[in-house]
């Protein structure tokens, strides 16, 4: 199959945008028939006019039968919060600990539901954290000597 390149060096004629039910069913049938294969071979075998990356992401994030869809359970959310404290934004490592959940799904759930609730609680004491209690002169830290008291700088700092 010969590919023509347009001015922006991308293969011409590839479909972009939302996937149709027809394309989803073709991708499912191809994966059932051939199983795991090279992603670069998939669009031509499935009869899709999509790039290989689009096919791979559609299968891994939406169509694969191993994906767990729907609401996150409470224990899954707790695990995500604990793993995020430990690993940070390494969504693929976190997804490896939650079977059936994709890294993209976990990242989206974190950003929309959990990130605000997982931040440390602010103190509700009587003093605001930005207000300082005045100290007695004897409790203050001594001024730092910045080297401005040398004899040659005397006239400049007066």
From TrEMBL:
Annotated ranges, domain HTH myb-type? 14-63, 64-118
Record-linked InterPro entries: Homeodomain-like_sf, Myb_dom, Myb_TF_plants, SANT/Myb
For the region Disordered, what residue ranges are annotated? Answer: 113-158
The Myb-like domain is annotated at: 11-63, 64-114
Which Pfam families does the protein's record reference? Myb_DNA-binding
| Location(s), subcellular | Nucleus
Q: Which PANTHER family match?
A: TRANSCRIPTION FACTOR MYB8-RELATED-RELATED (PTHR47999), TRANSCRIPTION FACTOR MYB90 (PTHR47999:SF24)
| SMART domains registered for this protein in UniProt | SANT
List the CDD domains hit by this protein, alphabetically: SANT
- The molecule here is called Uncharacterized protein
List the PROSITE patterns: HTH_MYB (PS51294), MYB_LIKE (PS50090)
The protein's predominant localisation is nucleus
């Amino acid at each position: 199959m010969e590919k023509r390149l347009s001015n922006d060096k991308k293969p011409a004629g590839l479909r972009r945008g939302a996937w149709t039910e027809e394309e989803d069913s073709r991708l499912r049938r191809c994966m059932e028939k051939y199983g795991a294969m090279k992603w670069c071979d998939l669009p031509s075998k499935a009869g899709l006019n999509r790039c290989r990356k689009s096919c791979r992401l559609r299968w891994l994030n939406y169509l694969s039968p191993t994906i767990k869809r729907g609401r996150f359970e409470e224990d899954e959310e707790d695990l995500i919060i604990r793993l995020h404290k430990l690993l940070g934004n390494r969504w693929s490592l976190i997804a490896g600990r939650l079977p059936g959940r994709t890294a993209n799904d976990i990242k989206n759930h974190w950003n929309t539901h959990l990130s605000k609730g997982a931040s440390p609680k602010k103190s509700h004491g009587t003093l605001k954290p930005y207000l300082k209690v005045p100290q007695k002169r004897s409790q203050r830290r001594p001024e730092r000597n910045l080297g401005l008291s040398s004899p040659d700088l005397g006239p400049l700092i007066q």
